[in-house]
Amino acid sequence: MRRIARLLTLLALPLAAAGCTMHLNAVEGPASIAIPTSYPWESTIYAVRTESGVLLVDLGWTGAARPLRRGLARIGARPEDVTDVFVTHSHRDHIGAWRAVQQARFHVGASERAMLESLKEHADLPSRAGDLVLGNPAPWPGEVNVHSFSADTVMVIGGDTVRAFLNPGHTAGSASYLIRGVLYVGDAVYRSYVTGYRPASHIFTADHAQSRASLVSLFDRVRPYSPAWVCTAHGKCARPDERFIRKVLGDAFPDTAPAPN
Length: 261
Ligand SMILES: [Zn+2]
Prior knowledge:
This is Glyoxylase-like metal-dependent hydrolase (Beta-lactamase superfamily II). This protein is an alpha/beta fold. The chain has one domain (2-252): 4-Layer Sandwich (Metallo-beta-lactamase, Chain A), CATH 3.60.15. The protein is 24% helix and 24% strand. It is built from six helices and 14 strands. The protein has a six-stranded mixed β-sheet with strand order 1-2-3-4-5-6, with helices on one face. Strands 7-8-9-10-13-14 form a six-stranded mixed β-sheet, covered by helices on one side. It is globular. The termini are far apart. The model is unreliable at 257-261 (pLDDT under 50). Bound molecules: zinc ion. The site of zinc ion (ZN) has 5 residues, from loops.
């Protein structure tokens, strides 16, 4: 058990290296807020107030209910006002506050559902070790109201249109959401001070090659909607211009330049 705890500590180091938030103020306003829930890796809940309640993207780390309540108060809302939660994926650092918003609809990629509902283990070693040491962090079937989607989906919620995109790889059912011009990509994009923006970290990812291929496809599929910002689940936001996409994709960047004559 002690060896597993030591392993978890070791695995936390790259997360620590990725600490601090970036440009969160770009996606904040009178009706929207970003709520970092855990030091040092800043697993973040994004909240948007609507005409009928609040939309959330992800639910932070264990103990996130308190920062969630404080954060929502800053936009004049409470956890009880949350109508919809858009889950990018069900790793334990992104579902922490689920009990605080049990009245909401939980949207999740179809291949993620069994993991969100505690019916299937995650494929990556850190998640399995975490569950062994810290216990199951997820709800059981019936404890939350889950709506899953098996293809890119458009949802109209009051005056808002939410576009959901599947980008499997980090986990089997990873998804991104475009809300009010911001593309929330979960852990599909990762940033550390060493590498800058990169595809999902190998060690926490079920299928790295698939995750990378999904990103190439994702950036192509969101292009018609011209997102103004892209935000990771760990509190980093950036302009998704060609320079950013080229940096993230590296040699997987699609060469769309016309062939020379
Ligand atoms: Zn993750």
